Amino acid sequence: MAQAPDAEPGRPELAGLLGAERNLRLERLLLERALAWAALVAPGQVHVAYAPAAGEPALRDLAADDVALFPQTGGGASRRLAGAVERLFGERDGPVLVAWPELYRWRPAHADGALDDLHAGCDVSVGLVFDGGFYLLALGRPVPSLFELPDGVWGRPEAMGRLLAAAHHAGLEPGLLRAERGLRRPADVRAALADPLVDCQ
User: Fold this and answer.
1) What is the pTM of this model?
2) Backbone angles phi and psi of 61, in degrees to 5
């Protein structure tokens, strides 16, 4: 799930700090790293659901030729996510891993952990960003009830609790991945710079 890098800034605190040009470079870098990870763990099976509708050229400039692009449809975050997942399950058998380009460092273990959860019998596996929202959502089959959360919840600290409550109410078994730090605020930048495993170029 991706915003075109030249769309309205999705990280306003960093956008104000960096300025327009450097913020655009950051958005492109985070997308490039998420796409590189996706190509590594699912070669030839990467799809990008993008917004806004006019954002395809900016995404195509970053994505490899074998990456399928399609616009997000529906009003609100929940409907857009549900539509993207429904489309993918309509085209192929599961599992489907949904990634948001929030992390500055993606590892194969993110996908391995999610797939291990699904193979162990979990219906869904989720990766939480420390200060709210998700970086990864893995599904072995369509689960429409998970996409009934209010739109404003997806990026907030209560997102995990609300999603787990929805899973419990639907009788689903959830799996939890390691929480990760996203790149949204100045404190996140300082943490990334202090991490010896992160390429900050």
Assistant:
1) 0.90
2) -65, -25
Contact 154/134 with Cβ under 8 angstroms?
A: yes
Are 51 and 79 in contact by the 8 Å Cβ rule? The answer is: no
φ and ψ of 124, to 5 deg: -150, 150
Q: Where is average pLDDT lowest: 19-28, 32-41, 84-93?
A: 19-28
* CB-based contact 8:20 (threshold 8 Å): no
Residue 171 CB neighbours (<10 A): 8
Read off the amino acid at residue 12. P
Kindly report, residue by residue over 146-180, the tens digit of the pLDDT: 888 888 888 888 888 999 998 998 899 999 999 99
CB-based contact 67:47 (threshold 8 Å) = yes
Q: Kindly write down the DSSP assignment for every residue of the chain, as one continuous string.
A: -EE-TTSS-S-HHHHHHH-HHHHHHHHHHHHHHHHHHHHHHSTT--EEEEESGGGHHHHHHHS-TT-EEEE--SSSHHHHHHHHHHHHHHHS-S-EEEE-S--S---HHHHHHHHHHHHTT-SEEEEEBTTSSEEEEEESS--GGGG-S-GGGTTSTTHHHHHHHHHHHTT--EEEPPPB--S-SHHHHHHHHH-TT----
